[in-house]
């Protein structure tokens, strides 16, 4: 097994970064790591962007498909509980308060797992994600914070198995978790706990540096960036200062049209529905948003004990107007036309109003999921129409149909094909 010594990542005990094999080129790929495994052909069964079967994987993971009688499952997938949460003592360096990494720490502390597959910062670029195997709780502190870019997390499954680990946890984004679940039964582990992070738009680390360069004269001084549910981006700097920028004042028009690849623009699993527990921000109203999805997900949350404060999530505002406006802009962008922008003098006013009257809490989360569904349909229709039948599940069509976006001939599986 060809691997690097732990010194290639922060010098802490038992933080190990095996060197992955080269990636096999794919047409639509986020480099989850499967193409770097011993059998790259597994991609054909595992990849979210080839022929996903969300209903079958939901039955495998949750024992059932999403229930249309539970209104929120149409948006967020199967779950047991939905909560607003925060660590009572926020962890230094965490993106929010550190719930995700603290769960992983507790799994290692209690011996429930022998290793955690997660992301640490690359030694040469703290924004670049580097897959690591963490085998001591202290190592998880180096995995806190946001990374931007693609990294082959699942390429560590084989080194973990060869090293003799039987019980592991994986902290992953939706495309990684989909592939993991598709292959889970044949990997040979006794236990895999899956901590899911929502993801809507990823890009290369190089593209992200370009974005940072539009936000600051010296982007190397930025240490933290977060898109918040109150329609602002929060930046933090090396000198300890903070800055908040309304979404509407971001220089998005200056980014290249391919800043976000088609994989991210066509992803239909924003909320990581195949995880045991999803920990994100969308419905958290300034705190974290947690969905326990399986019995094991409940156990993961219980590991935090009284270290975490929990509350029912709130909901306010109406999403229909923002979603319809988003649809119109994506229609123009997907059709090669310039996106309509509001006058510069109006942007600060709307930026001030949106946190007060726009969708908030669970309504904000619903809006984002509908926007992602709209984006998936329109961009695939424009760029890869032959893939639509296989890549867009029935529940996504149910999200976009209220906005007048319906399937055309050949874009949707028949009822018989869905049952097959």
Can you put this structure into words, describing what you see?
By secondary structure, the protein is of the alpha+beta class. The protein is 31% helix and 17% strand. The chain is built from 15 helices and 14 strands. It has helices spanning 43-46, 54-62, 73-76, 99-109, 157-162, 174-183, 205-215, 262-265, 295-302, 320-334, 347-357, 362-383, 388-391, 394-400, 415-419; strands spanning 15-16, 81-87, 115-122, 125-134, 167-172, 191-196, 222-227, 232-237, 242-246, 277-280, 288-292, 308-311, 315-316, 360-361. Strands 1-4-3-5-6-10-11-2-12 form a nine-stranded mixed β-sheet. Strands 7-8-9 form a three-stranded antiparallel β-sheet. A two-stranded antiparallel ribbon has the order 13-14. Helix 6 (174-183) links the parallel strand 5 (167-172) and strand 6. Helix 10 runs parallel beside helix 12 and helix 12 packs across helix 14. Mean pLDDT is 89; it is low at 1-13 and 336-340.
């Amino acid at each position: 097994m060809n691997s690097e010594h732990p010194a290639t990542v922060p010098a802490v005990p038992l933080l190990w970064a095996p060197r992955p094999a080269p990636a096999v080129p794919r047409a639509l790929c986020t480099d989850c790591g499967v193409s770097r495994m011993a059998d790259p052909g597994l991609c054909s069964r595992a990849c979210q962007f080839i022929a996903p079967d969300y209903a079958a994987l939901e039955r495998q993971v949750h024992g059932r498909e999403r229930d249309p009688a539970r209104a929120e499952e149409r948006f967020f997938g199967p779950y047991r509980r939905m909560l607003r949460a925060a660590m009572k003592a926020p962890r230094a360096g965490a993106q929010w308060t550190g719930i995700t990494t603290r769960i992983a720490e507790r799994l290692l502390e209690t011996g429930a797992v022998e290793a955690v597959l997660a992301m640490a910062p690359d030694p040469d670029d703290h924004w670049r994600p580097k897959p690591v195997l963490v085998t001591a709780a202290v190592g998880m502190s180096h995995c806190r914070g946001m990374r931007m870019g693609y990294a082959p997390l699942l390429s560590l499954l084989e080194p973990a198995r060869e090293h003799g680990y039987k019980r592991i946890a994986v902290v992953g984004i939706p495309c990684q978790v989909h592939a993991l679940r598709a292959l889970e039964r044949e990997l040979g582990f006794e236990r895999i706990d899956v901590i899911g992070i929502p993801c809507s738009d990823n890009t290369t680390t190089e593209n992200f540096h370009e974005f940072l360069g539009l936000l600051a004269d010296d982007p190397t001084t930025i240490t933290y960036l977060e898109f918040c549910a109150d329609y602002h981006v929060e930046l933090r700097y090396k000198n300890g200062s903070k800055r908040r920028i309304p979404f509407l004042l971001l220089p998005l028009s200056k980014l290249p049209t391919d800043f976000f690849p088609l994989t991210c623009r066509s992803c239909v699993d924003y909320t990581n529905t195949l995880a045991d527990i999803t920990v994100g921000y969308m419905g958290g109203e300034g705190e974290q948003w947690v969905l326990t999805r399986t019995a094991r997900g409940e156990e993961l949350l219980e590991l935090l004990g009284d270290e975490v404060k929990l509350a029912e999530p709130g909901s306010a505002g109406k999403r229909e107007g923002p979603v319809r406006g988003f649809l119109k802009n994506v229609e123009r962008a997907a059709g090669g036309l310039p996106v309509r922008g509001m006058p510069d003098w109006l942007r600060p006013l709307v930026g001030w109003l949106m946190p007060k009257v726009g969708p908030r809490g669970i309504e904000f989360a619903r809006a984002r999921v509908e926007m992602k569904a709209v984006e998936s349909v329109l961009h695939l229709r424009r760029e890869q129409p032959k893939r639509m039948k296989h890549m867009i599940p029935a529940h996504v069509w149910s999200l976009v149909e209220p906005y007048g976006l319906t399937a055309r001939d050949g874009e949707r599986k028949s009822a018989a094909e869905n049952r097959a």
